[in-house]
């Protein structure tokens, strides 16, 4: 029981780490001050945002470090890198030291790398301590990364609302302090052999995760209502204290659930919870699925020798029909090199040769990455429309709805028994709000349109960010997810550079100096023309991403359907 309690302490510690280490999401809060201090163009500012995203290219280094160093030391190194990177930027923007532009670029690169190290630590903690409920643990903890901007906005408003540079200081200190607090449960994490992997434990854990998700929803609503409050500092401190209480409250949930379970077990020995359907694709189900398909492969190979035994009869018919119509473009698109089953391990060399991976890559590139670039430009977008005073509100709005989107990514796992749908199909549905938002932003320059568009983009990108880990695991194998997912997210720095370059180019073409302003030496663009064509281009790219996601769904739907049929058959055999 002690081991079971400690693993929930690990989960809470992981939530804290994720909640306070998404420091790249508050870039738009201080980007205007950074631009003014360095006296740079919008294009040069975009390169700094890109540098932060480029840090993800070096995410593999965290996995390499974990091969030789203890987890606690890797966490400490991540927090130290962030402390140095953001701390030096704060000293420079406060004119305490002088740094050239290229050093700011390198510091942004380091800060982005530290975020990737934090994420790797969190993924490893969830995978090690929740081997059975891994998808639920990952989706819940990753969700809290979306509230970082709202939490930092509350913290800054409670200290000094007029200082944009304060965000850099908070970005340096808070992750370091959070890491020190999280070290205690990490050092005391239970041994792997003490973790209960029984079906009863899985059902009990699923209930706890359901309660934690409801608590997370209340946290998101609270931050949405009070995260960008413009009240005085004392009131902001009260709101910030309430947010901290919400983050601490998950500590009470596991103890309450276990106490109730003990009470019912002591009084009603026959107490059981039947029919949990909380995992869309269970790890053990994947293994059973692969075993069934392997047996089927042997049988079909002996009977007809066609070499397609990993497919069911329907799948074989589908393949043969596709082969007969190989001269048809549509047939090639849907039939060529399709996944035989879910959970099959793919090496990096094999992954990059699959059409499904590149459809997935384009989906992420034109969906979640565009949302991230939009959040980086949110400060300049608001400023160009004369809404500089609403930047904190917009950042909080994006953060809160990104959080809700990440939580929504877990819904398929909870409704599987009542409504089963391929996760790649949910991914396509999750991308729909992005083109809708950009159409709205291009059509109207009103404050209401900006807030609505920001909420939709945050919701969509948050869903994609959280769902992507599970999709990568299911399509290309759970044991290879760390490598394959790092290959996938190489699209983030590429997209940040290309999409950001486009936005900066259009912005600078319409920018001019404003006489008598504090930023007179800096080119500033005002009006709808600053981002109109950017929204049009981004909207077109998001439509391309939506089309790619639909193709991915159509190509993988048969594998998900076959997996579900095998799962149901296995349950009937057991019962």
List keywords for this structure.
575 residues, mainly alpha, Growth Hormone, Chain: A, 74% helix, 0% strand
Topology, number of strands: 0
The topology string of helices and strands comes to HHHHHHHHHHHHHHHHHHHHHHHHHHH
Strand content: under 5%
CATH class division of the largest domain? Mainly Alpha
- Count of individual helical segments: 27
- The overall average pLDDT, rounded, is 79
Q: Give the overall silhouette.
A: globular
How would a crystallographer describe the biggest sheet?
Answer: none
- Tell me the helix content: over 70%
The CATH superfamily of the largest domain bears the name MFS general substrate transporter like domains
CATH topology of the largest domain: Growth Hormone, Chain: A
Pairing-aware structural class of the strands and helices? mainly alpha
- What's the CATH architecture of the largest domain? Up-down Bundle
Overall number of structural domains? 2
Task: Show unreliable segments.
Answer: 268-280, 294-328, 516-520
> Cα-atom Rg, whole angstroms?
24 Å
End-to-end Cα distance:
29 Å
Main location: membrane
Transmembrane segments: 64-89, 101-125, 137-159, 165-187, 207-226, 238-259, 357-375, 387-408, 420-443, 455-476, 488-507, 531-554
Keywords: Membrane, Signal, Transmembrane, Transmembrane helix
Subcellular location: Membrane
